[in-house]
Amino acid sequence: MTKNIFLLGSTGSIGETTLKILKKDKKNFQIKLLTTYSNVEKVYRQALLFNVKTVVIFNKKKYLKNYRKFKSKKIKIFPTIEEAFRFNKKKSYLTINAISGIDGLEPSLKIIKYSNNFAIANKESIICGWKFLKKELLKNKTRFIPLDSEHFSIWSLLKNEKKQNIKKIYLTASGGPFLNFKLNKIKNIKPEYALKHPNWKMGKKISIDSATMMNKIFEVVEAKKIFNLDDKQIEILIHPQSYIHAIVNFNNGLTKLLAHDTTMEVPIANAIYLKSEMCDFKNNYFNYDLLNGLNFIKPDLAKFPLLNILKYKFNNTYLEVILVSLNDALVKKYLDNKISYLSIHTLIIKLLKKPYFSKFYLLKPKNINDVKIMVQRVNHYIDEYLDK
Hints:
Elements: E1 3-8, H1 13-23, E2 29-36, H2 40-50, E3 54-57, H3 60-65, H4 67-71, E4 76-78, H5 81-84, E5 94-97, H6 105-111, E6 117-120, H7 123-139, E7 143-146, H8 149-157, E8 166-173, H9 191-194, H10 204-212, H11 214-227, E9 234-238, E10 244-250, E11 255-259, H12 265-272, H13 288-292, H14 318-335, H15 341-352, H16 355-358, H17 368-387
Parallel strand pairs: 1-2, 1-5, 2-3, 3-4, 5-6, 6-7, 8-9
Antiparallel strand pairs: 8-10, 10-11
Helix pairs in contact: 6-7, 7-11, 7-14, 10-14, 14-15, 14-17
């Protein structure tokens, strides 16, 4: 029987990788929903290629402008998830959230009830709204699958294991393009160089986060929430080859490693083929050469000062929302050549200490609207701060 797939954020790098996998197996899977914020031309081509009859365009102006274009091809388009599902209550076999940034949180909360399995590569949603996501997942008995390569690896390694058996989990980081550079030597490095990740092909935002190591900070916070870990149970190790994605050390003396090539096709395909044996990679071989040259390095705080942020207590408060929003805004400024590479580091550390933000660190958002309001406050503050 054909299994239905909903794909949020189909025009980004994770979305395109998902479609690449599904293109090879249209017999067993049918895409029922695609979404984009504003990349209308790409989602239009995707809908035609995969015969998708329902599309959500979150940008209201572009939705209205392109309504007739989609209608001429008998494709229904909507500006929100709620409107798209007003007359269609059928659950998907799998929903994949590939939306970038905190914008992915609200669509996730809206679509979980229409999903039997929910896989997410959107770390900002988990960091800022895990308690809301978890509530919806439990309420609707929806199975949760983390799609980040590190978290999918941990999830795979911890199957049938109890939390009390875990001694420590190690998340690996490549170190990005500037691993062997001192920060003061690259303080004015242009975005084109920061985007050149040595191992992965990723979107612009996550590539910059990888260079600054903010991506790894997010992943630590994310892992604590998903797997209910204590601060002492998780650590970062730099692994330049990016072949080992997670290491779990157990109290019984055993240590498990999970390795795979540097492509998101592996966790995505394994999430898609969750209950079958059909997932088969043509180049699926064990790369022992990479293991022969294996090395792990403790990160240097002088090179990656943002790692000091992990000293903060992340407890589902506004701290998570403020951190994600600060980083989102400053990375965008950097990509637009409005601030320097060094400024991403110095401004985040400096602004987190501002009383304007720190007064919220013991307060918890009560709903998605509280999160959205805080995001707006952060963006407004940064614009005013930089103007001064």
